[in-house]
Amino acid sequence: MVTDNTRAPTGKVTRFVSRAGTVGQLFRHFTGRGRLFMLPVILFILISAVLLVLAGGLSYVAPFVYAIF
Amino acid sequence: MDAPFRRGDERRAADPVSVVLGISAYYHDSAAALVVDGQIVAAMQEERFSRRKNEAGLPRQAAMACLAQAGLNAGDLDLVVYYEDPFARLERIILASLRTFPRSWKQFPGAMRVQLSSKIWVLDSIAAMLEIPRGKVVTTTHHRSHAASAFYASPYERAAILTIDGVGEDVSTAMWKGEGTSLECLGSIEYPHSLGLMYAALTAWLGFEVNEGEYKVMGLAAFGTPRFKEAFAALIEPREDGAFALGLPYFAFHTDTDIAFSPKLEVLLGPRRPFAKPWDLSGCAEDRRYADVAASLQWATEEAVIALAREVRARTGLDDLCLAGGVALNCVANARVLRESGFSRVFVQPAAGDAGGALGAAMIGAVELDGERPAPMTTAALGAPLSNDVARSLAERLGLKWSAPGDVLGAAADLIAQDQVVAMARGRFEWGPRALGQRSILAAPHDPAMRDRLNRVVKKREPFRPFAPAVPHDRAAEWFTGADNDMAPYMTTTARVEPARAGDLGAVTHVDDTARVQTVTATSAPDFHRLLEDIGARCATPILLNTSLNGNGEPIVASESDAMAFFLSHQVDAMVVEDVLLTRR
Questions:
Q1: Can you say how many angstroms the Cα of residue B543 is from the centroid of all Cα atoms in its chain?
Q2: Nearest to B237 by CA among B255, B227, B249
Q3: Residue A41's closest chain B neighbor by CA?
Q4: CB B364 within 8 A of CB B81
Q5: Cis status, amide bond into B102, omega within 30 of 0
Q6: Three-state SS string across B234-299, please?
Q7: Residue A55 pLDDT class (50, 70, 90 cuts)
C-alpha cells in the first residue's frame, strides 16, 4: 500500500480526476490478472455506465435476498 | 481514551503515531474502526447512528464518531483501508453471470446497475466523505480483513484462522495461518459454494428475513431433532480435505436476486414457510417439522465448520484457532468447534460479521505503517459514550420521572432484585451485535415467566427466542460447564448449564440446557461486573438476564435520546442512562 498526499478531492475537476484514477485502477486490475479477454466486457460496461449516468438513470438498488452484488 | 491525541504536525513532531481508519460498507453492517498507534481506539457500526438496522451506506457518522473519540479529525488520518477489493468483486459478478448464463440474464442488469452507480467508486466516495486525498484510501481483500479482525484482535501470538461467510469478492471460506504480523492464506473455497449462503437460503425457506433471521434459526434448531440429515446430504457434500460443495441445483442465490433457493429445494424439504407467520411449536405439527429442518441445517453447518477446523489444525499444527465471518456468529457451532476440533483455545471477536471487516482493515493498515502487530482487543466497549448532562436535560425536557442516586448501580440492583426489568445505558456502546452490559435490558434470571414477559411485551419477538446470562468470570464454573474460554467475554459461544443449578436459571436456560453465557471481569467491564456482584449480594446468584437494548427490528440504542425513546415506547420498569435513573410515574 502506497499513499500520496495530493489535494483532497473537492470540486468537479478533482472529482473527475479521482474517478479517472479509479477507471485506471479498474483496467490495471483486469490487465494485471490475466483477464484480458474480459476487456471488451469491461469497456461495454463502462460505456453503458457513462450513458446511464448522463441519462440520470442510476439509483442504488439493494438485492432482496443477500447483498452479494 | 484518557487524553485526546494532539493534532497534525504538533502531534507528529512530538510523538509520531499512525492513525488508520478501517471502513466496511455497501453490502450490510457498514462500520468504521480506528487504530491509533497500534491501539484499537474506537469501532462502531453506522446503524447505531442512522437508526436503520444493518445499515449498508457509507459509515460517515461512525467514522466521525471514531475520530471524535480519539480527539482527531479526518486530516490526521495517515491511511484509510476499505475492507475489500471492489474490482475483484466486479470481476466475480461478471464471471459468475457468464458461467450461469442464461439463468443469470435477469439479474445481470440489476447487478451491474448497483455496481456502476456506487460500488466501484467506493474509494472515491470515501475520500470525498472524509475530505481527504484519494491516494490515502486503499483496499485490502474481504477475507483478509476478516482474518485480521480475528487474529490481530486475539490474545494469541500464533494461531490457525478460519474465515467463513456468505461471500467476499470471490471467496466464501478461507484457511489462514497467523504468526506475529503475518497472515498466510493456506486455501480457500470459492463462491457459490458457501456455508453462509446455504444458511441464508434456508433462513428464507423457514420464513425469516435473510441477514436478520439467522439467529432465530439457530435458536429454533434447539427445539427440533436433526432428522433430515439425508436430505441435507444432497444440499452440502463434504470433501476429504475439509472443504465442501453445495448441491447448486437446490439454490438460486447465484442466479436470482429475488429468491435464494430453487423449486427443487421445496421438492426436497416441502413448501417454504410463509414469511413472518406466528410460530406455535407446542400445538402445530407443521411448525415442529420446520424446527426439525432448522435442527438439520444447524447440524450440517456445525459438521462443515468442524471439518474445516480439523483440516486447518492439521495444516498448521497449531493449538489456537481464530474464527471470523458471518458464520462465526453461530455461537452454537463455535462451542462444538472448541469441544470437538482439537484446538485448545478458540477466539471470536464480537463483530465477527462484515462490520468486523472494518476493524480488520484498520489493523492491516496499522501493520503496514508500523511494522508491528496492533495490541489485542480487551473490551467490546468501543462505541460512543453518553453524557450525564445531556441525559438529565433530556429527562427534564421530556417530563420524565428521574433521579440521580449516589449509587445508581446499587439502585438498579435493588430494582432487579424486586423482579423489575431495568434498561441500562452506561458508557460506550458495544462493538458487534451483542449487548454486553453497556446497552442492555437486565432482569433476574430465575423465572421462565420473565423470559416469556420479555419476549412478548418488551422485545415483541418469537416465543422460542432464548435470553443470555451474564456472570462474573470467577463464578461462572458454579453454574456453567465450558464457560472458561476466550469467546465467552464477547458472548460468541454457548455453555452447558449445570443440571443441579438449572432451577436457578429458568429464564436464561435454553430448551437444550445451554446458555449463551457472557463472562465478565472487573477489568473488561468494571461497572457491569460491580452490578453483578451487587445482584449476588442481594439474591445469592450473581447472574443477570442480559438482552440487547432495542425493540424488535431496531438497532441497539446508541445515544441518550435513543435511550429515552426506548424508555417511552417499551414496557421496562426503569432505565439507567449514565448516572440518571428513570422510573415510571
A1: 23
A2: B249
A3: B94
A4: yes
A5: yes
A6: HHEEECCCCCEEECHHHECCCCCCCCCECHHHHHHHCCCCCCCCCCCCCCCHHHHHHHHHHHHHHH
A7: low
Which residue type, as a one-letter code, is found at position B306? Answer: I
Q: Write down the residue that cell numbers 471477536 correspond to.
A: B349
What is the Cβ-side half-sphere exposure of residue B561, based on CA atoms within 13 angstroms? 4
Given a cut of 70, the residues of chain B with pLDDT beneath it are 1-16
Which member of B124, B138, B167 has the closest CB to residue A3? B138
C-beta atoms of B134 and A18 within 8 A? yes
Transcribe B109-149 into DSSP letters: HHHHHHHHHTGGGHHHHHHHHHT--GGGEEE--HHHHHHHH
> Could you tell me which residues of chain A have a Cβ less than 8 Å from any Cβ in chain B?
1, 3-10, 15, 18-19, 21-22, 25-26, 29-30, 33, 35, 38, 41-42, 45-46, 48-49, 52-53, 58-69
| Residue carrying the nine cell digits 482439537 | B342
Task: Say yes or no for a CB contact (<8 Å) between B91 and A9.
Answer: no
What does the alpha-carbon distance between residue B429 and residue B410 come to, in Å, rounded to a whole number?
21
Model pTM score:
0.92
Q: What is the ipTM of this complex?
A: 0.75
Taking one residue from A and the other from B, the number of pairs with CB-CB distance under 8 angstroms is 127
Smallest CA-to-CA distance from A60 within B304, B105, B119, B205 is with B119
- Verify whether residue B254 is a known catalytic residue: no
pLDDT tens figures, B232-265: 999 999 999 999 999 999 999 888 777 889 999 9
CA angle B379, B210, B439 (to 5 degrees): 30
Q: All 3 cell numbers of residue B150?
A: 480475528
Whether residue B90 and residue A5 make contact (CB cut-off 8 A), yes or no, is no
Residue B316 CB contacts under 8 Å (≥ 6 apart), including other chains: B160, B177, B186
- pLDDT by residue (tens digit) across B165-192? 999 999 999 999 999 999 999 999 999 9
